[in-house]
Amino acid sequence: MIIAALTLGRHGYIMTSNWSRPFDDPIPLPRGRQLVTLEDAANYIQKKAEQDLEEWQAAVEALLLVVELNGPTMMARIRVMREH
User: Tens digit of pLDDT for each residue in 1-24?
Assistant: First the structure.
């Protein structure tokens, strides 16, 4: 399960990150849906990665960097948009 993997730090300890952090601009999806928070993106990636994890690996890594380092959400937004 990707969500569980994303909450583990690179050294195996659980991160106390803020998954409810919003993107600066929501990521539009088909049928008028949007990814608003990092948690929304993680859940979306989890569903998509079940079909092709290799394709989504870069988006997972970008999301991890944003959450672990409290970096700009734009990095993860670009990777998720590129893959979907």
Answer: 344 444 444 544 444 567 888 999
What burial letters (b/e) apply to 56-67, b meaning 16+ CB within 10 Å?
A: beebbebbbebb
Q: How far is CA 55 from CA 41, 48, 80, in A?
A: 15, 9, 11
Residues 60 and 13: their CA atoms lie apart, in Å, by 18
Residue type for position 72 = P
Measure the CA–CA gap between 70 and 32, rounded to whole angstroms: 28
Which pLDDT score, from 0 to 100, does residue 22 have? 92
Contact 19, 67 (CB under 8 A): yes
Tokens 């990636």 belong to 45
Instruction: Note whether 71 and 23 are within 8 A (CB).
Output: no
Domain boundaries, the chain: 2-7+20-83
